[in-house]
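During the reporting period the student researcher (J.K.) took over the structure-prediction task from the postdoctoral fellow and processed the backlog of single-chain submissions. One of the processed entries is reproduced below for the supervisory committee.
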Amino acid sequence: MAQLQKSIEKRNALVKATIHLVNNNGFHATPMSKIAKMASVSPATIYLYFDNKQDLVNKVYIEVKAAFTAYAFKNYNTDIPVAEGFEIIWKRIADFKLKEVQEAMFLAQCDNTPMIDEASRQEGLKHLQPLLDLWERGKREGIIKPLSPYLLYAYSINPLSFLMVMQQRGVFQLNQDHLEDAYQAAWGSIKK
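J.K. obtained the following structure tokens:
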């Protein structure tokens, strides 16, 4: 049991180190040796858990994406009206991005660069299915504009990443009023 716990701790340390180093140095400037050093494990230990650097980053991406979407959809169920459902999901996504900044920054990096392979990207997309289904229902009910899910995401969810980065840089501090304004702008951009 103690051995299993130690193994989980090492793997978690590698995941945290990967997130931190990719966020601060980028994918290409993050060698496996640096990840191992930051995680306080030998470089050989990485290969007990991951095949190579690409496998490591892909798996970390999928894990973080799964944690992000589990958080986003925690209070959502498909029985509630579209507008209410979108508000719940949007506000949970905002909360995640502002509380779990390192993980959210890592996802933004992964989503905006080619460092994740296509299979992992598709796996990550599956985790967003409840939001895609909500939008589809909203389109059928005439509540949401009949746009591509990529456009809906770009106009309603992606601005949160920009706001998160601005807050991280200390340029703009989000308060409850700002978040409510941002939500209203997001909803206004996709509702019919």
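The committee noted the following: The radius of gyration is 18 Å.
J.K. will present the remaining backlog at the next meeting.
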